[in-house]
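Two quick folds needed for the group meeting slides. Do the first one here.
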Amino acid sequence: MTSILNPYLSFDGEAKEAMEFYQRVFGGELTMNTFGEFGAEDVAIKDRIMHAMLKTPSGYTLMGSDLMPGMEHKPGTTVTISLSGDEDALLRGYFDHLSAGGTVGVPLEKQAWGDEYGQCTDQFGIAWMVDIHPKDA
């Protein structure tokens, strides 16, 4: 087995909505389990997502969960997820969907280094970069 790196995102009670949003953006198979499914009876956490995993047709795996009540939540301040490649339409579509309802920090457009590049923060506070390389480069 080879090793892989998977982004694992934390949410403050929005993991279900966020992971369903990412499934609409990227497609694929989404599995989710709540704390209650694993025996938690505390009303404050039983319906929160303990673990979610999205496996996409593009080969991405994105994981996430809700934080326990009282844990600090600071999305978008230290990590940005970067998507890159030469599949223009696919990556442009991801950028459009991720930025809808969020904010665009850098519009997706041609940059000095020749790539099309943009930055956005989605509606859940997660920062994304998209870099589209020219196919002939």
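Then this one, please, same format:
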Amino acid sequence: MNDGSFTARVLGAVGDLPAADWDALTDGGNPFVSHAFLSALERSGSVGGRSGWTPLPIVVDRPGGGPVAALPAYLKDHSQGEYVFDHAWADAWHRAGGSYYPKLQIAVPFTPATGPRVLTQDPELAVPLLRAAETLCRDNGLSSAHATFIEPAQVPIFERAGWLLREDIQFHWENRGYASFDDFLGVLSSRKRKDLRKERARAQEDVEIRALIGTEIREEHWDAFWEFYQDTGARKWGRPYLTRQAFSLLGEAMADRMLMVLAFSAGEAVAGALNFIGRDALYGRYWGARIDKPFLHFELCYYQAIDAAIRLGLNRVEAGAQGGHKLARGYEPVRTVSAHYIVHDGLRAAIADYLAQERAGIARDQIWLDGRTPFRKAEAPAPGPVDR
């Protein structure tokens, strides 16, 4: 695409651009849109090949200059690893004689964490960049483009572009200036406070828990974590999304932005959780165990994450997709947003109607969940936080 003032081009990989050029388009606050993270997925074979995630980043260049805007985009021939489910849309379109795949996915693969999807330091280029994605779809027979887990500040960009908006609910922990985990416990109801203390005590019995950052994370730890991850991936998805090499590459490139929490028994790692550290958030991503120990999952994934966020001075913990069990552990319901461009007018109208009904249901769920947080009534936050 070329309108005389800028040119949009499609690359074969994020790794086709120098890291400095790609990272200059971001503010550096989100680890998942960094060149290090996205190129590690490419180099490790976690995307590309037969994964169904074909890298297709869209980059805008100024005439005679380098990139000034980009979309982390992928050609998809399925809807796996997205966490915003559109299988019903695909089925309906196929029944109507259409072809839903391939489609364009503007996202971080396998990562249900909020973040920027339009990468640019020039806000005037944001909507034109989305127009380039629309043109790519129309000119190449793609049914649609989907941007998932959009950070709140960028939702208006997609609204201005006229994309359909969809909402869902995640559970995030909010740091309201807590000095310690006990300080956080102090705002919970008495019964919930006792429950959490009992869970932590049970989880920590007969194991040693270590939180590792940076050079503390060694290849032996990645070997152990890979075993945990494979077990969880096989049970949840049928096969793990990331390859073993991905963890080593991520460890080499961005270990200082990763927090690995491991549980040891008799000197051997038996369970672990992996988090990524952003400027203002801790992102819980992967977990696994080779033992079945009550409450160990909650300890490694949720309570240790709260401890770390307080220690690191972070504003929140994003604990990933789904999981109503997080509610009782101080994680609050937060609405997340995705945006969708549908090429065919008829399909677009049908999906718009569907989303209007779905939003009403999400709003009802939000109200129900807000009434079941574990906070003391006098300490309860304002209802209905919207991550927009």
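Slide caption for protein two: The longest helix spans residues 345-370.
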